[in-house]
Amino acid sequence: MSLLDYRLVRAALSLTFIVLPAYYLLLPTFHHASAELALQVPQKHAASGKIEWQEPDGTTKSIPFIQNYFWLKFLDDQFLLASVVFSPSSNGYDLIGRWQFSQFLIDVGPLYVVWLLEGWRRGNRWTPAALPAVGLYIAQLVTLGLAAPIWYFLQFTFGTSAKGLTTQQRTIQKEYVPALLFLVLGLHLGIVGLAYFSPDHSARHWWVWAWQPVPLWIGLANVVLVNTVLKLPGLWGLKDQWIFSASTLSVIVGTISLGSWALVWLKSPFSFRETFIPAVPLAQTTDLVLVSRELLQLDYLASFWATFAWMVSLFLDMYAGDIITGVEFATAVSSIPIVCIFGGPGVALLNGWWWRERKLARVDRKTTEKTE
After folding, report:
1. DSSP for 1-22?
2. Measuring CA to CA, how many Å separate 209 from each of 67, 216, 335?
3. Residue pLDDT, tens place only, 26-71
4. Interior CA angle at 145 toward 143 and 147, to 5°?
5. Which helix (H) or strand (E) holds 119?
6. Residue 233: phi, psi to the nearest 5?
7. What are phi and psi of 278, to 5 degrees?
8. How far is CA 294 from CA 83, 102, 172, 289, 319, in A?
């Protein structure tokens, strides 16, 4: 029995390695003066009733904010501020922010996939990981950078160790996968594309609002489809077709993420440091463009720090359970930054997650051979 079989040890590890460093990245936002200033800037613009900006040629453009989009004041107020923060990048008057946040949103696709697949792993059925759509929706409300570390903490702390999972518990419920390809591509990546590339700025603003509850729609739509349409004769067998498998879904979403990252490498006129690393402390600016850019940069960094720290914790769990060797553990950990640099965070996440799946499958095969 290893130390990681004890829940208290798992909690201490995930708190120290996942949560605290991610929140440390967000300290500029949490600092009282910075947080107050950061909120005042979008609040001021929201109170004006419109988004206004200057085009490169000096002309001023503006579009009115959508009123009563959800017809729930709490949601309308919450997402109004988010739509203000997204405006500089989606409407294109912050070119650096446009490169950064569009990549962030595309990399959220692989993150959606991994969270959802973990949610349908049989061994996670009675753990916080079993509610990925809820976790992702909360992330939309409070930002992914705040929500992801907590979700990973709960998932790692209350999840069963890799060694403790039976072969059946490791399996992912295949019936929940076929519709995901269309839901993730259509409801997430499709809407992101419309929010960023619609020719009309008002349409972009509308699609930004439409995207914000998307994780919840994906989760609900998938459950409904699995229990209705996909049970029809001729459709239930789709879960056994490779084209509707989790691996195919990951390849497609990962390829899109990789292609977007390649564009950042090859086409962006800005350095990686300019694009992804905050340059101006929040307390030193009241410019909406700079405030929005830094908030989204910090969110991106904190989200994927927590994601990769969780991944390393899973690798460590496998090493502690004698599923992988020390060399395999070191190789897996060192591959994360390498793949991240050349393929992007989304690809690095999928690469690490599927590497783990292959190792777990190897254990299952050995177990089967012994029983035979």
Report:
1. --GGGSHHHHHHHHIIIIIHHH
2. 11, 14, 36
3. 765 555 445 566 677 788 888 888 888 887 777 888 888 888 888 8
4. 70
5. helix 95-119
6. -55, 135
7. -60, 140
8. 15, 14, 37, 9, 37
Residue linked to tokens 């300019």: 274
Provide the residue ranges of all domains of the chain, joining segments of one domain with +: 3-31+69-371
Closest of 246, 285, 263, 261 to residue 344, by C-alpha = 261
**Nearest 10 degrees: Cα torsion 10, 11, 16, 22:** 110
**Which region among 244-258, 286-300, 315-329 has the lowest average model confidence (pLDDT)?**
286-300
C-alpha 91: how far from chain center: 22
pLDDT in tens, 344-363: 999 999 999 999 999 988 87
- Pairing type for strands 60-64 and 50-54 reads antiparallel
- Bridge partner list, 61: 53
Query: At which residue do the structure tokens 């079989």 appear?
Result: 5
> By the 8 A CB rule, do 282 and 294 touch?
yes
Instruction: Find out whether 14 and 156 touch, Cβ atoms under 8 Å.
Output: yes
User: Across-strand partners of 53?
Assistant: 61
- 224: tokens are 């409904």
- Rounded to whole angstroms, the Cα distance separating 76 from 93 reads 24
Percent of residues in the chain assigned helix, strand, coil, to nearest 5:
75, 5, 20
- Name which of 178, 144, 156, 100 is nearest 299 in CA terms: 144
CB neighbour class for 100 (10 Å; exposed up to 12, middle 13-18, buried from 19):
buried
Q: Phi/psi at 83 (nearest 5 deg)?
A: -65, -30
